[in-house]
Amino acid sequence: MKRSDSMANNEKLDAKKDQLVGKTKETAGRMTGNDRQELEGKAQEGKGDLKDKLEDVKDKIAEKANDWIDDLKDKKDDMDHKKDR
């Protein structure tokens, strides 16, 4: 159930890229008076923010699932040890 570190890192990097590119577009649009570019930048930055939050949620879900699986394995081991006595 563990998420692959490289997959998670790639998705986090993609989110950071969207945030940075979006902020750059937004700033350039604001400096040049290009409202469309500014709005596109804000949208891309927001997209990056959402991706980043989604990755955090995925990590927390994977962590909880792994904890739950570990607990089940421990309980099974305890039952097997009691049965062997």
Automatic annotation (TrEMBL):
Stretches that traverse the bilayer: none
Domain CsbD-like: 11-61
Biased composition (Basic and acidic residues): 11-51
Region (Disordered): 1-51
Annotated InterPro entries: CsbD (IPR008462), YjbJ_sf (IPR036629)
Family: Belongs to the UPF0337 (CsbD) family.
Protein name, UniProt field: CsbD-like domain-containing protein
